[in-house]
Amino acid sequence: MTNAAPILILLLLAITFLYSSFEKLTDWNGTMTWLQSHFANTFVVKYLKICLILVLVMEIITGVFCVSGIIELALKPTSKIAWYAAVFSCLTLLALLFGQRIAKDYDGARTLVIYFIPAVVLVYWL
């Protein structure tokens, strides 16, 4: 299968974003509590609920595109949906990275770059 590598990266990203959004939805209060302490000394704390909703929507859209891209790549040699999934993954990761930098969580920001690299590779491949 010529699309094995892109499918594996899409699977990595789908798991990442869909599970993250699942956690946010099933433990909304816990997530909000943690984020309030994480962003306590930043301007973001005032807008935390809207920021969380935005990130949640981005993660769900990205995860759905990733799963749809996997299906399309399994059936066809190319996939526009998979390319959108890769681009949305990059945008979502950049939004999360921006938040980590605002919070001065440099280890968290560095961790996001680990996900960003395969997402950019995927944009290039597709």
Strand content: under 5%
The description of the largest β-sheet is:
none
Q: What is the overall number of helices?
A: 5
Helix content: over 70%
Instruction: Report the count of strand segments.
Output: 0
Rounded to the nearest angstrom, the radius of gyration is 15 Å
**Morphology call:** elongated
Whole-number tally of structural domains: 1
Oligomeric description of these chains: single chain
Instruction: Write the element-wise H/E pattern from the N-terminal end onward.
Output: HHHHH
Q: Uncertain segments of ≥5 residues (pLDDT<50)? A: none
Mean pLDDT across all amino acids: 95
Structural class: mainly alpha
Instruction: Compute the separation of the termini in Å.
Output: 15 Å
Outline the structure in words.
This protein has one domain (4-125). The chain has 126 residues and is an all-alpha fold. The mean pLDDT is 95. The chain contains five helices and no strands. The radius of gyration is 15 Å and the shape is elongated. This is DoxX family protein. Keywords: Membrane, Transmembrane, Transmembrane helix. It comes from Flavobacterium tibetense. The chain crosses the membrane at residues 47-74, 81-102, 108-125.
Q: Which terms summarize this structure?
A:
0% strand, 126 residues, elongated, 5 helices, single chain
SSE map:
Elements: H1 4-26, H2 28-38, H3 48-75, H4 80-102, H5 106-125
How would you sum up this structure in a few lines?
This protein is an all-alpha fold and 126 residues long. It is built from five helices and no strands.
